[in-house]
Design goal:
The structure is a homodimer. Chain A is of the alpha/beta class. Chain A contains 12 helices and 14 strands. In chain A, the strands form 2 sheets. A 10-stranded mixed sheet of chain A has the order 6-5-4-3-7-1-8-9-2-10.
Chain lengths: 468, 468
């Protein structure tokens, strides 16, 4: 038997140690990690209802945190969505739109240096900042991540199909043309190309290692890690450990490896006792790329939502989003609050006690109180842009489509007057048009639509210029 | 301070009491509860990905138990699906099919008395058996539940739209005709009508009370409770406590009240310390009734699946299914094993150590080892019947449609030769027909299709006869 006083002493020491740990964590500014999947659909995770893709780590992350069911991104394709996330501003304000929908290897521009990214803002309070993975906001040297507040960068500067292999254009000839003209896919370490055409099967493991090293190296100061996976954007690659393992085929293999990667990160935070003072966000940049009628296995699923990447229907812009952070994010909760990727910047800045920029409009809002469970209401209005054209808005449960267009279709956009009206909370699949029953709602949304358009100052489109 | 020996004694007594409790529970034959929702779609619960219906109790049941993602019912509409569940046999074998798709108030027949229901089988080992809710296997006195092994019955004998109010036929004129000819909706206690046209807003609460009373009354003997909710079949009714509470509208209110009802039952089992020796199954009888183009708010959602109630696409016959039973069902697991509602009878009989009937073919199999986690593989083949016509089969991940027909459509069924082929594990939404790539698979499924048809002995259809 252990003598009683020794037992008491042991408990006391354990208590002191726990108290110290807890205070040590909460006295520091919180750490932030954003994990961004590429083209992952609303329905592609176990906790969002996919029947055969297994995502135990993300499901557990949801159980330990807050899973959002009405979370939006700022654009329906990659480049403008990433610009919106990092700046808290709609693409129409930061210029990341054009006839070309994203940056390509031969694009001349990048994100304007005047934009304040999450990384740049956090650096003002001494945060260590790192980006691992996909950038896609400019690939000329002056537009690489180190010019935007990131201390370090390791990854591909644009999509994983923009090299010599596995390019996926909208048509076969377009695809062939790109493979011919693209330079070999560059892998950067900071501002230097350290490899070309890296073995993409190893990317998830290599990126995960980089993220874990960054966390370990910065464990004693506040940090911000932006981990932007290249997957499940096509071409799909999984490591040997995951290849052929998912019932969902290669797409499932790739998502399951990404799930593993997230699990590794949360495990490392717990090991280093950083879990009580770190907020981790997992989300996708836009809806799934369906590859309609071309490649049935490689396109993801928007679950119950209609349409996909490139569309302003829900499937294009509503994404899976899980926030995790014991103590900061209320555990085991599902939120139906409307929120957007542009809320991340103001929320992080508030948690880090950094004032928001006052010299420019922001399109996101601080959702700290939604995360900690004090309320369950977020954005009042959501804007659905396609390039510089406002296609639709959501206000409360109502969505009005003023223009529609099927994703990746050669057809012209179709204007609607009166707009098509759906109640998204009753009918998330946008199946039942109900405008005739609700003329008052249509008028209200029309006013909000016009008010927003009147308030946006047009800037120059930046996506179209090409390097000569 | 409590003296140490008292503390030790206390722990010892707690340990003995826990040991006794556990042995007392596990030495008894297990109790069984089947909770059957009506027309609940695959996508209508939080844990199956619905964005705005909140089902915390069912989500928790899934966390404490096993959630199936490829679980099927024996038919795509109510009456034959219930017959299949209770007998472990396809409708083609027990006669529950016809030109009329279900029993109506004026139907002359019922389930054949020669059928062995779960209740009748469990009675051979002294089980207390009760049915609360919807029967729908015959409403003449000789076809009421007490003739099929149930000790007690409280509920409506058929669908909640088959009375004088709120009838929903496929067309408006059909609907009006039914309201005129139907007798007032009868509420039975055993073999007696105790009310007509009961206030349906109170049904979930009243049924829940009945179930809780049954459990409490039978706490010291093995029991089987079959709780068949009338909802979310139309017309939809929720109690005052739930009305107007869900963002999903009335349909959501009704599902959220059903979720509450399930929560009450699991709570009662824990209170009575029956939880370690009771298996609870929650499932739906078929896919959602979409009410296409008629009533946008009252139709459920099949989530990522295609089509709905009345169809042999996945949306018609794959349902949410959660098994719960600490000690008997492995907790916090998701199973992609293919299983069916006809597996419930052989599984319960095995757990209760009752031999299976040997004088007739069963279409289900014992899935005890799937439930306890020893394996994750269930049925090899799934059959999709529409009345007596075999429309499609699934074998492994593959599904071949030999005939298709949109749900509740006046169009004629369309035969397919070669059959349409889908890989359900890669493409659960049945979007990408891949027959041309897999002629060998088509041949394999064609053989399984013919073999099954050759092995089924035709019986008389029982759904069509009408009381003169």
């Amino acid at each position: 038997m252990i003598p009683r006083f020794k037992l008491l002493l042991l408990f006391f020491l354990l208590f002191l140690s726990a108290l110290y740990e807890s205070r040590a964590q909460s006295n520091r500014q919180p750490n932030f990690i954003v994990i961004l999947a590429d083209d992952l659909g609303y329905g592609d995770l176990g906790c969002y209802g996919h029947p055969t893709i297994r995502t135990p780590f993300l499901d557990q992350m949801a159980t330990e945190g807050k899973r959002f069911t009405q979370f939006y991104v700022g654009a329906n394709v990659c480049t403008p969505s990433r610009a919106a996330l990092l700046t808290g501003r709609l693409p129409i304000r930061n210029g990341i739109f054009g006839k070309r929908v994203v940056f390509f290897p031969n694009s001349a521009n990048g994100l304007p240096h005047s934009e304040i990214t999450i990384a740049k803002a956090l650096k003002t309070k001494g945060y260590a900042t790192g980006l691992v993975g996909k950038w896609h906001l400019g690939s000329k040297k002056e537009y690489l991540p180190l010019s935007y507040g990131f201390d370090s960068y390791f990854g591909l500067p644009y999509s994983n199909d923009m090299g010599k292999v596995g390019s996926f254009g909208p048509t076969a000839s377009d695809q062939a043309a790109r493979v011919n003209t693209n330079p070999p896919l560059p892998l950067y370490r900071n501002n230097e190309v350290v490899e070309t055409e890296p073995d993409q099967r190893q990317l998830t493991k290599r990126y995960t290692d980089e993220v874990l090293k960054f966390i370990t190296a910065n464990r004693s100061k506040p940090f911000f890690m932006y981990y932007a996976s290249p997957f499940p954007h096509v071409p799909l690659y999984a490591s040997e450990q995951f290849s052929g393992k998912s019932k969902r085929g290669l797409y499932g293999d790739v998502v399951e490896e990404l799930d593993w990667s997230v699990g590794q990160i949360l495990k490392k935070l717990k090991e280093l006792k950083l879990d009580k003072n770190t907020v981790v966000v997992f989300l996708s940049d836009n809806g799934p790329w369906l590859m309609k009628n071309r490649l049935e296995e490689v396109g993801g699923s928007a679950g119950p939502l209609y349409e996909a990447k490139g569309s302003t229907y829900e499937g294009g812009m509503r994404v899976p989003a899980i926030f995790w952070g014991p103590g900061l994010v209320k555990a085991n909760t599902v939120s139906t609050a409307v929120a957007t990727s542009m809320d991340i910047l103001p929320t992080f800045l508030n948690l880090a006690k950094i004032p928001l920029p006052t010299d420019r409009p922001l399109d996101g809002q601080d959702i700290t109180d939604v995360l900690n469970g004090r309320k369950d209401k977020g954005a009042e209005v959501v804007y659905y842009y396609d390039a510089d054209r406002l296609y639709a808005i959501r206000k409360g449960p109502w969505k009005a489509h003023f223009t529609t267009h099927p994703s990746y279709s050669p057809e012209a956009p179709v204007p609607h007057d009166p707009p098509l009206l759906y109640n998204l909370e009753v009918d998330p699949g946008e199946r039942y048009e109900v405008g005739k029953k609700h003329p008052d709602v249509i008028e209200d949304l029309r006013k909000a639509f016009e008010k927003h358009r009147a308030g946006v100052v047009a800037v120059e489109p930046l996506l179209d210029a090409i390097v000569e």
